[in-house]
Amino acid sequence: MMKKIVTAILAVICLLSVAACSQTNEANTEKQETIKMGVIPTDDNADVSAMYEPVAEYLEKETGMNVELFLANDYTAVIEAMKNDKIDIARLGAFSYILAADQTKVEPLVAEISKKTGDKFYTSLLITQNDSSIKSIKDLKGKTVAFVDPASSSGNLVPRKWLLDNGIDPDKDLKEVIYSGGHDASVLAVENNKVDAAFVAVNIYEDMKQKEMIKNTVILGESEKIPTQPIVARSALDAETIEKIRTAFIEMDKNAPEILDSFKEAQGFTSVEDNEYDGLRELAKLLNLDLSKME
Fold first, then answer.
1. What is the signed CA dihedral for 275, 278, 281, 283, rounded to 10 degrees?
2. Residue 90's Cα: distance from chain center in Å?
3. Euclidean distance between CA atoms 189 and 203, whole angstroms
4. Distances (CA, A) of 278 to 95, 141, 182
5. 116 — alpha (psi -120 to 50), left (phi > 0) or beta?
6. 153-211 pLDDT per residue, tens
7. Using H for helix, E for strand and C for coil, what is the string for 241-290?
8. Dist. CA 93–CA 99, nearest whole Å
9. Do 122 and 225 form a contact (C-beta atoms < 8 A)?
């Protein structure tokens, strides 16, 4: 009799477990209907909505889901929105991705393939005027130098390490540090003799040079390689949705190459892993950056 009761109890437990598992599986396999993509203003102040609407339409076609654009003022607002599940994917800077990964659960989907380098890395350039007495990075002591933004990889962080490697403390040895707010603004500050030198992303400088926007500048040096901007996603997104988005970006150059015009410096996208940004993490440690205070 006892054996029958135990058997009956086990049967009920099994049935309840199966039901619970079934409900859990249904929840986990619930299809994502809408993707919210975070974007920020570009250096040239273009209409961001107009720029990314073709991207949204392309993703809708490739994934079968609705895509909405979330316009933010800066990377901080995008990261905060991801923390609160307000957006699902976003285009971040390399360092901004590290900041996001430190604060919330995100993962890199793809990285941009640079038009300039042909791979998922780029560099920072040190530039000055053609007739400047500055001939190398070691000549920057006592000079006025333009950086882009405190959280910019190529416009501030990598250059700071570059300076330190050459015996220059950017906080003590420079006459003045100016944060221009954009790579193009830094280039023009040098061009118009507003600063003695500047650190800028190679792709933006070369683009401005090609468009003949600058004539009075010269390159003094080039930094170590920096990972390009990634497209990231909330880790909580279901695996199928994440894979659809990743595949859509990777195949963009084949399926809709004209869409790449929205990503000025990219000729395509390729897969990327979190550990490829470890070099920047080490850089942050070297510079004693407190990521929790860079929100």
1. -170
2. 8
3. 17
4. 10, 30, 25
5. alpha
6. 889 989 999 999 999 999 999 999 999 999 999 999 999 999 999 999 988 898 899 99
7. HHHHHHHHHHCHHHHCHHHHHHCCCEEEEEECCHHHHHHHHHHHHHCCCC
8. 10
9. yes
Q: What is the pLDDT of residues 91-142, one digit of tens each?
A: 988 878 988 998 899 999 999 998 878 999 989 999 999 999 999 999 999 9
All domains in the chain, ordered by first residue: 34-115+229-293 (3.40.190.10), 121-227 (3.40.190.10)
DSSP string across 60-124: HHHHSSEEEEEE-SSHHHHHHHHHTTS-SEEE--HHHHHHHHHHS-EEEEEEEEETTTSSSEE-E
- Rounded CA-CA distance 130/162 in Å is 22
- Residue owning tokens 């015996």: 167
